[in-house]
Specification:
The structure holds two protein chains of two kinds. Chain A is an all-alpha fold. Chain A is 71% helix and 3% strand. The chains are: A mainly alpha, B mainly alpha.
Chain lengths: 215, 184
């Protein structure tokens, strides 16, 4: 889902960095209240976990694969701000240590996947969890993929409008909203199903494991 | 300011410049300077950058060429500009990764450096383990594994990673506490 370097204009990524920086500072303050010898390593461990979940391929019939992100699982297990920070760290690590993704796209990816993905998942979990846990977890996983995909599509789709030369030729991502929205969002409606299943199974496994460790 | 932090600022300035330049000639000149700065590693840097962006950029470029053809627009300058910019930015990033110690560049924040350091070290371990899992499944299978076997392998790998992450977090917490990290 996440955008590589070179397709987002500075008119988009500079304001996005300003917004993301403010939210990272706020999230760090929120998390720091709980940041101690236990939570700092957990933040690091779940960042690494989310990083590797993005590498685990979930096969689909027909030979293709999709990649989970673990956003829903992180958010319902550790809260929205922790999820936002962990996903942002994953994206920063991918961009600056592994050369995957991009530094110019980092704030858009972090806001879409980390912030909106985490809080959408958390809202589904908190809103529906008391009625049906499995449905709430599934919806949390599905929303954590579909809403960020929608935002990423919007960020890409506005590029020809805000960054073009005198003749109207695009300077960055060349396709407008009517092409970008269906091309990005429709496949993610299906990818979200896999993420939903992963969130249900992952959460159950994590709960059992924590009980085992606590015993 | 240490050398790595200065290099981080130089990298960010170069990224900004590459975003504001739109003339393909200037973008090509920027790429040439980046490759010159890479010295003997220039050809491998260029090859790695092109291979990294090849799949995504091919789809975008071919789709845009088809769209431009249908609308009777000349796509070449736009395609050249977009592809040069993407390769330039990717080359800059790979050069930065090869030359700069990010942990020293970010050492103004103790918590950030530790979180990044712990996450990076575990991510490296996990990445190696992920490759081992992939090779193990391939070596156990005489023919292409069935869909259900691949699901089981993915589930087993994910479960192992979750368990490993929990144990690693507990161990790191004990190690940090025993060294007085939160009381310094």
């Amino acid at each position: 889902m996440h955008i590589p370097d070179g397709f987002i204009s500075p008119q988009t990524y500079l304001p996005a960095y300003a917004v993301a920086a403010g939210l990272w500072a706020f999230a760090a303050r929120r998390v720091r209240r709980d940041l101690d010898a236990d939570t700092l390593p957990f933040l690091a461990a779940y960042t690494a976990l989310s990083f590797v979940l993005m590498m685990v391929a979930l096969p689909l019939p027909g030979g293709t694969t999709v990649h989970a992100a673990g956003i829903g699982l992180l958010a319902v297990s550790f809260g929205g701000w922790m999820g936002f920070l962990a996903i942002s760290l994953v994206l920063a690590m991918q961009a600056l240590l592994f050369g995957d993704g991009g530094i110019t796209a980092l704030p858009i990816n972090a806001l879409a996947m980390g912030l909106v993905g985490s809080f959408a998942a958390l809202a589904a979990w908190k809103g529906l969890g008391r009625f049906n846990q499995s449905v709430a977890l599934f919806l949390a996983g599905w929303l954590s993929i579909v809403l960020p995909a929608l935002l990423v599509a919007l960020a890409l789709g506005i590029q020809p409008l805000i960054a073009h030369d005198a003749q109207g030729a695009p300077l960055f991502f060349p396709f407008s909203m009517n092409i970008t929205l269906p091309a990005v969002v429709l496949p993610h409606l299906l990818v979200g199903l896999a993420e939903g299943v992963l969130t249900v199974l992952g959460y159950r496994y994590l709960t059992r494991l924590r009980e085992k460790l606590a015993a | 300011m240490n050398r790595d932090r200065a290099a981080l600022f130089a990298y960010l300035a170069a990224v900004l410049a590459a975003s504001w330049l739109h003339d393909p000639v200037w973008l090509a000149a920027g790429l040439a300077v980046t490759l010159l700065a890479a010295g003997g590693a220039a050809s491998s840097l260029l090859r790695r950058s092109v291979l990294t962006v090849l799949a995504f950029n091919s789809v975008i470029s071919l789709s845009y060429a088809a769209l431009a053809w249908m609308q009777h627009i000349m796509p070449w300058e736009t395609l050249l500009r977009i592809n040069l910019r993407v390769v330039l930015l990717t080359s800059l990033t790979f050069l930065f990764i090869a030359r700069v110690n990010l942990f020293r560049a970010l050492d103004f924040s103790q918590n950030l450096t530790y979180a990044l350091g712990l996450a990076y070290s575990q991510a490296l371990t996990f990445r190696r383990a992920h490759e081992d899992f992939r090779l193990a499944l391939a070596s156990r299978s005489l023919k292409r594994p069935r869909l259900i076997d691949r699901y089981r392998a993915s589930a087993a790998a994910a479960a192992w990673f979750i368990e490993k992450a929990l144990h690693a977090a507990t161990q790191s917490a004990q190690a940090l506490r025993s060294r007085g990290f939160f009381h310094d």
